[in-house]
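Re: that chain you flagged

S.,

Sorry for the slow reply, it's been a week of failed gels. I finally had a moment to sit down with the sequence you sent. For the record, here it is as I used it:
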Amino acid sequence: MNSIWEKIQTPRPNTTPNTNPGPPVSWNDPSNPDDPQAGYGYIPNDTTKEETFFYHSDHLGSTSYITDDKANITQYDAYLPYGELLVDEHSSSEEMPYKFNGKQFDEETGLYYYGARYMNPVSSIWYGVDRLAEKYSQLSLFSYCAGNPIKYVDAMNVIRQELNMQWKNFGQRLNYKSIIPNEKATSSFLPFDRSSLNSIKMGMNPSPFSQYIEINVRK
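Prediction finished late last night. Pasting the structure tokens below so you have them in one place:
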């Protein structure tokens, strides 16, 4: 198995020390504007039209489907628990970079960028120490979501966030009439809050989503 450090690519400088920098690095051939359009800049040779795409996310904020402006599916992604791509299908030449948790995926390094740190979905760890590590001394400094990426999200890569707020928003947007027939939505949210549902019977404080389900669905 390859070392996790082999995933990191060292940037190549385009100049030498103590000299003036050379031209900027270009990853693709520059477009040549042949017919500038007043008010719109120009349309490059390699672009026939401007396209609009829409992201459709799952309960973790991960992009599952991408559709175009005609509601055609142009991309489908499925992930392993820590964000490694399991399925990446395209019907378009466009490659959308925002994938697991809605974070940008760097094709060159294979890492996700969360703002303050990078996460390796293959080794399931952060590259860098959590800047709030003192608050969670009992946890690994490099562990993603305390080893539970199905229940927790780490939107800002500094503290894990329970999905209760998302569950609450889910309940506020959808009433029980829409939850009951929506098998996918119910099965996605309900299992993660099973312990909280049990806490209702024990007189403990359940999560907002559990309260909503108990009041509107299970009555």
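What I noticed first: Residues 1-15, 20-33, 36-45, 158-202 have pLDDT under 50 and may be disordered.

Talk soon,
D.
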